[in-house]
Write a structure and sequence with these properties.
The complex is a heterodimer.
Chain A lengths: L5 H4 L26 E8 L5 H13 L3 E8 L4 H10 L6 E4 L2 H9 L7 H6 L12 E2 L2 E2 L1 E14 H6 L10 H11 L11 E3 L9 H8 L12 H12 L6 H6 L4 H6 L3 E7 L2 H10 L7 E4 L10 E12 L6 H12 L1 H9 L9 H6 L7 H8 L2 E5 L7 H16 L5 H16 L1
Parallel strand pairs in A: 1-2, 7-8, 10-11
Antiparallel strand pairs in A: 3-10, 4-5, 6-8, 6-9, 6-10
Helix pairs in contact in A: 17-18
Chain B lengths: L1 H11 L5 H40 L2 E2 L7 E2 L3 H8 L1 H31 L7 H13 L2 H11 L6 H8 L15 H26 L3 H9 L4 H12 L1 H16 L3 H6 L11 H11 L3 H30 L1
Antiparallel strand pairs in B: 1-2
Classes of the chains: A alpha/beta, B mainly alpha.
Chain lengths: 422, 311
């Protein structure tokens, strides 16, 4: 999971809770108004201001509750939480950084069943709930649902006299990227038409989401077109080549924020990142976002994403308060707090969209955000996900670095998955 | 020594009752033990016990959240079926085969160059030692920049020399390992150079003077005086360098992370990934056992050859 952007990690959690008193109905606890300290596992708090916002809002509504985050380094988060749980840790609320880890904890019986709580929530408005369904039961509720869009630099499009990238096909996208590759930035860096970050999802998860292919199947022919497109852009010089991006550990944020690329497919967690960069004065990029380019024009937008959720520890000390917090964070109130700082909440409503002030004011960006779309899970969850992920990552590197042909890479990935994993 | 000589002395004396003798000879033994005990305790607790435990683990199925279960040779079967294991085994050997001779040759060469009176000697010795004390991450990042296939100085220099299609270095499966070896030799040579320098100081100057008087040229002096005189140092360096090469982990993780694909994945990295990341302690222990046997085997062979030479 190291591939996942640290910003995503930001999700976390914090939590809190307690409440006992917050709603008039919560009066049956032993001492509903007594002070409660709710512990919540979270990561890299200093880079995730949105969570402090969430905690502050909850504490303000529940004066007797103090939220104490259990902060963990983002890169070590899954291992650390697994170790904590194995040791009988009593942290109340556990943030599920991704669905794969969630499935591991839940299958080991380390999370409290939240099916009842989910039954009380407006589930029709909460996106990304489905992957948390294990045989009809839920042990976590998503509060955040990121999905992938196409970011673009308005100034570069306008300078080239090209229309903004509204609902492109991949062929149109490729053509645009080549046209937009010209000149240099103020710092003398080459300006590329687009930037594909080194994660395999940029090619593979998009292909899976739009063709209906299964990344766990061992049959990867459905990757071929997307690889052909990515390699063609790279060979034409319209996208930074993979070898350089990988060996120099290029930061996708600086590629976009310093105007070195006119377009960039990326997840919505980056909205908060751009907002912070602009407010902090480190970037003056005029940005917008458009739906991901599609294979077939005209249909419903298909993209991929991943939800982030809160769960309650099986050994939690403050179960009621923990549930109260989760209800708050995953509902409209929590969603407005998240939207206010540029984080995409799982809960969607007009009021939440109105609170999403980080979004550029143009129509295209707003519809990209609000339109109905099909968001596939970035990687399906199963016992073998992690092993397959490793294999796909390795073969992705070889194809993108030109060390293997597309056909050979796809064949080898399939052979390895079938022989060593399935 | 006290312990071993005491019985010999006693033989010449009239026989004494057994019990008091034992008591008397126990004392120096206990004193001896008390000196090594603190060190041995640390070694036993932090190294020996985990090693033995690791050996047992390689026959068990165990993750951080379950009870260990005896599975016999299942981990080894799984390891043998895993193509990554064979690639990592080959890569580890490849790295060692490149790193050990190059490091030894270059560090010995540097030591010979710097073992003379020369203006700025201290500066050069420090300069060559500096890479060894530099942060490994910094070393890896800088070498990655130097090896950048398109705009890196290494390839620009090669192009200047007329190489029209320079290697892709760390982005190429064929050249990634050589690139890592170059960086690691550069980093380690200073350390071994210091060891060789210390060895050179122990060779008496009279030998060289006598050889010169007899008309031996520089090459003959090196071959017949320096190399034999350095033998204990060379052996020590060889053993240390071999052990370090087979255990390589950090530089590879930072520089290539085993890539591209699996082109630079080594055994210790695989142990980390299977054990810590995937939580398969049994499989990771089985691979560790292979690595241990490999390192121990090479070291024992080196000791045997050295002993035969000395005999």
């Amino acid at each position: 999971m190291k591939r996942y952007p640290s910003a995503l990690a930001a999700i976390a959690a914090a939590a809190t809770l307690a409440i006992a008193g917050c709603s008039s109905s919560a009066s049956d606890a032993a001492d509903p108004s007594g002070p409660v300290t709710l512990t919540v596992s979270a990561w890299n708090l200093d880079k995730t201001p949105e969570f402090n916002a969430l905690f502050d809002a909850f504490e303000a509504a529940h004066p007797n509750v103090t939220i104490q985050p259990v902060e963990i380094l983002a890169d070590d988060y899954p291992e650390k939480v697994a170790t904590m749980l194995a040791g009988g840790d009593t942290t109340d609320v556990l943030t599920m950084k991704n669905v794969i880890d969630y499935a591991r904890y839940a299958n080991r019986g380390q999370l409290l069943d939240l099916t009842d709580l989910v039954g009380e929530l407006p589930t029709d408005k909460i996106a990304g709930l489905e992957p948390f369904d294990i045989d009809g039961k839920y042990a976590a509720v998503p509060y955040r649902q990121d999905f992938w869009v196409l970011y673009y630099n308005k100034a570069l499009f306008d300078a080239a006299g090209l229309p903004h990238p509204d609902r492109l096909t991949w062929a149109q996208y490729s053509e645009l990227a080549k046209k937009l590759t010209s000149g240099t930035t103020a710092d003398g860096q080459k300006v590329y038409g687009t930037y594909h970050h080194t994660w395999r999802s940029v090619v593979q998860a998009i292909a899976a989401a739009q063709t209906g292919g299964d990344q766990l199947s061992g049959d990867y022919g459905f990757f071929a077109d997307q690889y052909a497109l990515a390699l063609d852009l790279q060979n034409a010089g319209a996208a930074l080549d993979f070898g350089t991006a990988k060996t120099q550990q290029v930061n996708y944020r600086s590629m976009f924020e310093t105007g070195q690329t006119a377009m960039m497919p990326m997840g919505t967690w980056y909205i908060a990142g751009i907002k912070a960069a602009i407010e902090g004065g480190t970037s003056s990029v005029e940005w917008g976002m458009a739906p991901m380019p599609q294979i077939n024009p005209g249909g419903e937008t298909a993209t991929f994403g991943s939800p982030t959720a809160f769960a309650v520890n099986e050994n939690a000390k403050n179960v009621e308060v923990a549930k109260e917090f989760i209800g708050f964070a995953t509902g409209e109130e929590g969603a407005k707090v998240l939207a206010g700082i540029g984080v995409v909440p799982a809960y969607g409503s007009d009021a939440v969209t109105a609170a999403f002030t980080a979004l550029p004011a143009d129509e295209l960006s707003r519809t990209t955000f609000t339109e109905n779309k099909k968001v596939a899970l970035e990687m399906p969850v199963s016992e073998v996900t992690s092993d397959i992920d490793t294999i796909l990552e390795e073969e992705h590197e070889l194809i993108m670095a030109g060390q293997k042909s597309i056909a050979d890479g796809i064949r080898d990935a399939g052979d390895r998955v079938k022989n060593e994993v399935l | 020594m006290t312990v071993s000589t005491a019985p010999a002395l006693r033989k010449r004396r009239p026989p004494e009752p057994a019990a008091p003798t034992r008591r008397r000879s126990l004392r120096p033994t206990l004193v001896g033990w008390s000196f090594i005990l603190p060190n041995f305790l640390g070694f036993a607790l932090l190294t020996l016990v985990p090693m033995v435990f690791g050996l047992a683990l390689s026959f068990m199925d165990w993750s951080p959240w379950g009870d260990p279960e005896w599975v016999g040779f299942e981990n080894f079967e799984r390891m043998i079926r895993n193509s990554t294991f064979w690639i990592a085994l080959w890569n580890t050997t490849y790295y060692a085969a490149g790193h050990i001779p190059l490091t030894m040759a270059i560090s010995l060469g540097l030591a010979l160059l710097l073992n003379r009176t020369l203006a700025g000697l201290g500066f050069f010795r420090t300069a060559f030692f500096l890479p060894y004390v530099t942060s490994l991450v910094a070393v890896a990042v800088v070498w990655n920049m130097l090896f950048n296939p398109t705009s890196g100085p290494v390839n620009q220099f090669l192009q200047l020399l007329g190489v029209s299609d320079p290697p892709g270095w760390t982005s190429s499966t064929a050249w990634a390992m050589p690139a890592v070896i170059v960086a690691s030799v550069w980093r380690d040579m200073g350390y071994y150079m210091v060891l060789f320098l210390a060895g050179l100081q122990t060779i008496p100057n009279e030998l060289y003077e006598a050889a010169r008087v007899d008309g031996a040229n520089a090459w003959q002096r090196f071959w017949n005086i320096t190399l034999p005189g350095l033998r204990p140092t060379t052996f020590f360096v060889l053993v240390m360098c071999t052990v370090a090469s087979f255990k390589v982990f950090d530089l590879i993780v930072v520089m290539t992370d085993g890539g591209p694909g699996r082109a630079t994945k080594v055994l210790s990295q695989m142990i980390y990934e299977e054990g810590i990341r995937e939580g398969r302690f049994g499989l990771a222990s089985a691979i560790s056992l292979v690595l241990f046997v490999l390192v121990a085997g090479f070291t024992v062979i080196q000791f045997l050859i050295q002993r035969r030479r000395e005999a």
